[in-house]
Design brief:
The protein is an all-alpha fold. The protein has one domain. 80% of the residues lie in helices and 0% in strands. It is built from 14 helices and no strands. Helix 2 packs antiparallel against helix 11, helix 3 packs antiparallel against helix 5 and helix 7 packs across helix 9. Belongs to the EamA transporter family. Keywords: Membrane, Signal, Transmembrane, Transmembrane helix. This is DMT family transporter.
Length: 291
């Protein structure tokens, strides 16, 4: 149930970003800074003991996750102004493909069905990219940014699952989001990105809505459930953000993807189902040794 709420929350992320009249990097900064502002009273007043009990390794991993999350936002959010919400979301949510690859490189053997699902999802990615290449090179560049954002998200999910073995959700997200906000603030200042000059009241309301829906209900709940569901299932379920974001964009923004993109989205979702089935299926035990 928590994962369903989280996916519903992040499904509003892309449409809200696309509808907000502010620079992409500024949007990324404010959604994290506002989340830290909401979390600070609870963590600093009631959870200081949890922060003190975080070991050096957990703090460093949480900060690393924050840096990678900043990279994820810095790559993905600009893509939303270059390609459609549906295509950008489909590509950025290819996280399970890269999660599977990283886990394999770290020595974890994955069932064949996981690889089949990941391959099918990647085929869907290529289909989406082909559609956008036919539209414009700008859309294809947006696809590339979204895909890179999905790779960064895989590192964020894996680091979060490692930290959450021993650290509470509130302590982890506080350190992670604070790091993300600081990194994005530095990037905005260095690049000369406007952080509020000329923003309308409607823009600030959308930033608040983005923080509540996508950051607090979305990312924070994902960080909570990853401990029990594992990084593969959690990252794969995030693919459901694709149809959710496409539906919101169609109803709210009137932004309909090309007809040829729909089969690609379906292929990606079928890949999702295969990965989840493989991760949820009991694995065979190794043969017993002896006479």
């Amino acid at each position: 149930m928590l994962l369903a709420v989280a996916i519903s929350g992040v499904s509003f992320s892309a449409p809200l970003v696309a509808a907000t009249a502010a620079p992409a990097l500024a949007i990324a900064f404010w959604r994290n800074a506002m989340a830290v502002g909401v979390l600070s009273p609870f963590v600093l007043l009631r959870g200081r003991g949890e922060l003190r009990r975080m070991g050096r390794r957990a703090v460093l991993l949480s900060m690393a996750a924050g840096v990678i999350l900043a990279l994820h936002f810095g790559l993905w959010l600009p893509s939303l102004s270059m390609t459609s919400v549906a295509s950008s979301t489909a590509l950025v949510t290819t996280t399970p493909i890269w999660t599977t690859v990283i886990l394999r490189l770290r020595g974890r053997r994955q069932p064949g069905l996981v690889w089949a699902g990941a391959a099918l999802a990647f085929a869907g990615v290529l289909m989406v990219s082909g559609v956008d290449l036919a539209m414009s090179t700008r859309a294809l560049a947006g696809d590339a940014l979204a895909l890179a954002g999905g790779i960064a998200a895989a590192g964020y999910v894996l680091l979060g699952s490692e930290v959450r073995r021993t650290v509470s959700t509130s302590a982890y997200t506080f350190v992670c989001y604070t790091t993300t906000a600081v990194v994005l603030l530095v990037v905005c200042l260095v690049s000369g990105t406007s952080l509020g000059g000329g923003y309308t009241g409607q823009t600030w309301l959308k930033l608040v809505a983005l923080t509540v829906a996508a950051q607090l209900l979305g990312h924070s709940l994902i960080n909570r459930v990853v401990r029990g569901l594992g990084p593969s299932v959690t990252s794969t379920a995030i693919l459901l953000e694709t149809p959710g974001a496409a539906l919101v964009a169609a109803l709210w923004l009137g932004q309909l993807p090309p007809v040829a993109a729909y089969p690609a989205l379906l292929v990606i979702l079928v890949g999702l189902v295969l990965v989840i089935r493989a991760e949820r299926s009991p694995q065979p035990l190794p043969p017993e040794s002896g006479a």
